[in-house]
Structure formats: C-alpha cells, structure tokens
Amino acid sequence: MQAGDLLDGRYRLVAELGRGGFGSVWLATDERMGRKVAVKVLLEEHAADREAVSRFIREARTAGGLASPHIVTVHDFGRVPTGSGSGAGSGETHYLVMEYVRGRSLADVLKKDGPPEQPDALRWARHVCRALDAAHREGIVHRDIKPENVMIAKDTGKAKVLDFGIARLLTQSAVLTSTGNIVGTVPYLAPEVWSGAGADSRADLYALGVMLYQLCTGRRPFQASSAAEYMYKHLEEVPARVRTADPALADLIAQLLAKDPADRPADAAEVHRRLRDVRPGVLGHGDPHPDRLRRDADQAWRLGAGGVPGEAVAVLPGIIRDLARICGPADLRTLRTCHDLAVFLARDGSRAAAVALLRELVPALAAAPEARADVLRDLDHWERELATEGPGEPRAVILDDLLTGGPRSG
Asked: Do 253 and 148 sit in the same domain of this protein?
C-alpha cells in the first residue's frame, strides 16, 4: 500500500496516519462520495490469521450498527485480492472505511499536553459515557476503553470512541482469545476479567474509571512493570483517592474502580448524569481544601459582623480567588463569599464599590434564585444609602478580577 493507490476502485489513499500491530490507517478520498475518510487496512501478514480477520470484520459490523455522535462511524468494509501469497486467506487485503476525525487521540493529548482542564476532562468523559450507553443498549461491550481509543475532534472538541475490534455481545461471556490470552489492555482491565469470571458492561465502566482517574491526575491508578503485577493490583489494591474540589467526583471514580462489579454504577447513563452534576476543580498539592476556605470565609464574616469590616475586606478577596480557582467561578460558595465582601465594603464606608459589586453579582446568580434574592435585597438597601450618604471611600472591586485572579482591589 502506498499513497496514490486506488483501493477497490473507490478509495484513493492519500497519506498513512498511523500503524499498529495488526493494521495501518490511511487518510483517503472516497471518490464516489467526494469526501475524506479514514481507511484501516489489515496488514498482509495477518490475512491468513483467521482470528485477526474475524476481529477486523467484527469491528466493521459492530461499529457499523451503532448510531451515536460519539462513536466513529463505519461506512464500509470489504476485501480485495492482492495477487500474491498462498494458502487460506492469503492474497487478500481486508479494509474498513471510517469517518475521518480531524484531531488527536486522548492518549496524545495526555502525553503531549498533560492532564486537560477539568471542564474538558469531564465533558470528554460524558461523551464516552454516551458512546458506551449507545453500545450497551445494543447489547455490546467495547472491552478496550482507553485514551488511545478516544479521538478528540479538532473542529468540535467532541470525544469519539473507536476500535470495536474486540467488542462482544453482552450475552457472550468469553474473555480469552483462542490462544488463551486475556483480551484488552492490561492497565484498564477490570478485576473480573483477570479472574476469568466474564465481563459485562460494568467492565467498560471500570476502564472508564481508570481513564477518568488519569484525566484528573495525569497518571493511572495503578503503576506496574508487568501484566502479573497489574493483575495483582487490579484484584487486590485500592488506589489512592483523587483529590477533587467536589467530593462527588472522587466518590464516582472510587465507585467506578470498585472490585465488585455490583458496587459500580448501574450503567453508563447513570455515570453521565453524575458527571454532569460535578462542580469542576481538582486540588493540587498544597491547595487548601474547599471546606477550609469556607471556614476562612466564615471567620472573615465573624470579623465583619463583630465590628471590624475593614479586616474582613482585607482577607476576603484572597479567599474568593482561591474559591474561584479551586471550586469554580460559578460555584455558589464563591459567589456568596463575593456577596459577603460587598456587604463589608459598604459597612467599611465604600458604598459605591459595594453597589457596583452587588450589581455584577445579580446576573451571575441567575441559576440560584435564593442567593440572587439576598443580593437584590442588599442592593436595594445600599443603593438608597449611596443616594443619601454619597459614594464613600473609593475602591475598585471588580467581580471578573476576583473570579479570574486579575488585579487586586485598591
């Protein structure tokens, strides 16, 4: 195979995109449809390997029967004679034609860029959940979920799952190849696969948990130098808990990595719902925990309420910046602490700055009606004070600066 070849009278090979142990992937032009496609070609030396050919055909038929915006679409597959070789199955080139996704694999993102920003990690994990939900609803287990099998589209930022070559029907429990090898990629294999108990959709969820752990921390939950060591760790060890701003994410990852499949979430749809509700933020080493920040904010409130609002004004901006960085700028804890700051600015004599900050908070709290009502009540009060008492001590306190770590008030 080389650039310029016309495969099966239809697919013009343009450039090789990658090569693995069983096949190569080419960028090609579908001359009948006039579109770019990706063509996976089974390497000629495997054409006589019945298992390799069977896997190749199964991938085409499995993925071709699934409909999801987060699964790479299979358009066509076939075989053409090569005119060389001898023996059963030789002299043929098997090919599979897929949607061309312009982008990078998630493995490439992790290797070259490190862990993504958490909003991206959570979004991509939700996309994988939607792909798995579509497959599981059709009774299909992927069995090889890992960053190498997730593409991130450059134009849309969507994650798309590919390589259903070792997928099996949920009604089939076999986990070994005909040569006795465990199927899958060892760092992502669920304990029940190692133990030979069979794998269902919850094995895919376990692999998703390994991948999500990796997205959040930059490393897999288990590090090992051999398959035997991985087997022991997957079967016996409990990984360190992920440090997250929202305990719900750490809880979810721990449940996905449960040794007993019955202790994992029920299905990919449940995982998707729980990921959607997670508040972004991962704690780095040395970062204060959100609970400590909340206690610091409460202490600042007591200072202000106790008659020293200036001291509260001095410490609250730093607390807010940490809350915004760790919990997120839209987190209710962050915005309520901004409200506290506005109140103590007013009490410390900076009525104009307080009113300006309260006005910025009103639209920011659109999704929290009770907190928004509290801000509107104080805004009404201090607007009347501003009208009668004047602006007071000048201060520049801008909400966007507080939430993004911009210039400090002065």
From this structure: yes
